Amino acid sequence: MKINEFIEKVNEVAYAECNHGTIFIYSRKVPVTQMRDWFLCLDPQEQNFHYGYDWESIDLTPGDLFKLVDLIQKFRLTPVNERFPEREFYLVVGRNDYGKEIYLTKIDGPIKIATTLNKDCLSTWNEKELKELENTFPNLAPAIKEMKKEAKDDE
Where are the domains positioned within the chain? Predict the structure, then answer.
């Protein structure tokens, strides 16, 4: 289970947020306008969580608390490297005569591909799609590793 998915599911029974790499869980019943005290915090980078808790701040029903504990257990069983958002990549196939990068892009899914210079038309590729691309175009497989350029939010 990824961090975002875990937080989304926790928010069905309580309130959770990730702040500075730590997940804080608050009681849903405390008004948003008041200062909220978390009753549980966990570090998603740890396989076995180090729990912080303040049980005086909890006001969940026993059923909601049971659901929360179940979600925490499912998240804990997720390997650490699978909890974080999947990395995405651009595929740079080369440069044109002006030194601009030429990208491999998807057209209606990862099987139909084209090249583009237009950054507005770029496609990102996750690891699963890259594996599918390698299986569909086996001759391209050795080059994909060299073509990968991590897609970052600031680009």
Answer: 3-82, 88-150
